[in-house]
Amino acid sequence: MTHLLLTATVTPSEQNSSREPGWETAMAKDILGEAGLHFDELNKLRVLDPEVTQQTIELKEECKDFVDKIGQFQKIVGGLIELVDQLAKEAENEKMKAIGARNLLKSIAKQREAQQQQLQALIAEKKMQLERNSISLVI
């Protein structure tokens, strides 16, 4: 363990001069300050300068606020991602429905075309039968 011995040299003229109240305390604080030791508002001896301590406390509070805001931001972004995923699924479902409807319409169109060809073939067959019947009646 290291011990720190603080000494101050006071000249006789300084001893006899009229001193302001608290002069010794101020001198002790100056000497301790030079050694890197400081008194806080409760007169407790501290290693850090009170300004540095205050800045550290403020930085700690700002960091806590920042972390809280980042947490809120992550919750908001998470909700947004879920919403976008849900919308993407709904869009995909609607897309599949549209593709199914389009394919159904194509199928119906092809069925109608095939039915039309069958009816035209039937009409042609009936016309030929009509002609045969007409010829048989004439003979």
Automatic annotation (TrEMBL):
One Pfam family matching this protein: IFT20
Gene Ontology cellular component terms for the protein in this record: centrosome; ciliary basal body; ciliary base; cytoplasm; intraciliary transport particle; neuron projection; non-motile cilium
Coiled-coil blocks: 105-132
Keywords: Cell projection, Coiled coil
InterPro entries recorded: FT20 (IPR028172)
GO biological process, one term: cilium assembly
Main location, first listed in the record: other
Compartments, record wording: Cell projection, Cilium
Name assigned to this protein: Intraflagellar transport 20
Lineage: Eukaryota, Metazoa, Chordata, Craniata, Vertebrata
Gene: IFT20
